[in-house]
Amino acid sequence: MKIYTRTGDKGKTRIIGNDVLYKSAQRIESYGTIDELNSLVGVVIANLSEKNLVLKDELQEIQQLLFDCGTDLAISATDKKHEFIFTEDNKAVDWLEKKIDDYSAKVPAIQKFILPGGSKTASNLHLSRTVTRRAEREIVALMQEEPINDYVLKFVNRLSDYFFAAARYSNVLDGVDDIQYRNSKPVFR
Questions:
Q1: Total-model pTM
Q2: Which CATH number fits domain 12-174: 1.20.120.80, 1.20.1200.10, 3.40.50.790, 3.40.50.300?
């Protein structure tokens, strides 16, 4: 099987349902950013510290779920043949919320903003958080143009919170303190 189609030679790509869109289309931007995030999570996994290997399985699960999100974002609003993969039935948002609550209970309480960083693993997880936020903005822009799978947006919104909590927890695992933003007033109570 050849991996090139030559459709892209004219700046276009075919999505699920056979619609052909310019590669600059908001739908392509949305699932392209999810693909970027998925690759970044792969980098996070490849660079986990010894003490953070406990995160490997759940990060690989997140990669699976991100692929489902990207697939659903690639389904045209006019496509009646394909159904969304990502649904509330898969309980992915509930799973993330449990992880967030668990990690939040294992880290020191904070009142001020913290800087993204700390250990190498935490830094990579913070980077994942910011790419997730960009993906969310791309999905919202798509949602303003045409219908999407709303559950994908809900999952991506929660995923950025997960990466924040996981980054803080990974600092704890590596014995590294979070760094508070020096000009932050107390914002978390």
A1: 0.92
A2: 1.20.1200.10
